[in-house]
Design goal:
Helices cover about 30% and strands about 20% of the residues. The chain has two domains: about 80 residues, Zinc finger, PARP-type (first zn-finger domain of poly(adp-ribose) polymerase-1, 2-Layer Sandwich), CATH 3.30.1740.10; about 90 residues, 2-Layer Sandwich (first zn-finger domain of poly(adp-ribose) polymerase-1), CATH 3.30.1740.10. It is built from six helices and six strands.
Length: about 190
């Protein structure tokens, strides 16, 4: 069966993306996946809020959106965000933005420590139908790691606690670019030296 966008019949389903309940009557995105527990090769559906599906599962969401005749609020924005996620495969890993609570995490791009109270982007991988936390990057490393800095609306949606001032600070850091010119992709290979 194809992926779907439909109205929720009840308020029992939880969004796989933000882990909040999907209210009865709200539009939801259903990603159809093979059911590993079914003997007959059946399928199961993973439910998402429509914006969460566009941001976190862009390929199957885009399939459902283009096939849907539902009246969907912000349809153009949802399609643009899903296409961005398809074009830049790492963008859908960006899970949230926040300040580092300690100075112990290391950026997955530049491998430098992320200083306490500096802005960082949390990452998550989607594996076996679940999102698994996978570390952080400096906000300034978004361009080389995510291959785009067009992530502010994504971060605003996935981090609803951000104030307008917070968003302004994050935008300013995104515009600055990476803190140094050397990155893991440009460093010489130590095994060759």
């Amino acid at each position: 069966m194809p992926h779907i966008i439909e109205r929720a019949g009840s308020g029992r389903a939880k969004c796989r993306g933000c882990e909040q309940r999907i209210a009865g009557g709200d539009l939801r995105f259903g990603e159809r996946r093979p059911n590993p527990y079914a003997d007959d090769g059946g399928e199961m559906t993973h439910w998402f809020h429509v914006p969460c599906g566009a941001l976190m599962r862009p390929e199957p969401f885009l399939e459902a959106l283009l096939a849907s005749d539902q009246a969907i609020d912000r349809r153009e924005w949802l399609e643009r965000e899903a296409r961005l996620g398809v074009e830049h495969r790492r963008v859908s890993r960006a899970r949230a933005a926040g300040r580092a609570s300690s100075g112990r995490s290391t950026c997955r791009h530049c491998r430098e420590t992320i200083a306490k109270d500096t802005w960082r982007i949390a990452l998550a991988y989607y594996e076996d139908g679940r999102f698994a936390p996978s570390g952080f990057i400096h906000v300034r490393c978004a361009s080389p790691y995510l291959e785009t800095i067009d992530v502010i609306e994504r971060l605003r949606h996935l981090s609803p606690e951000l104030s307008d001032q917070d968003v302004g600070e994050i935008q300013a850091e995104l515009a600055l670019g990476p803190p140094n010119a050397s990155s893991p992709s440009t460093l010489p290979n130590s095994s060759n030296s």
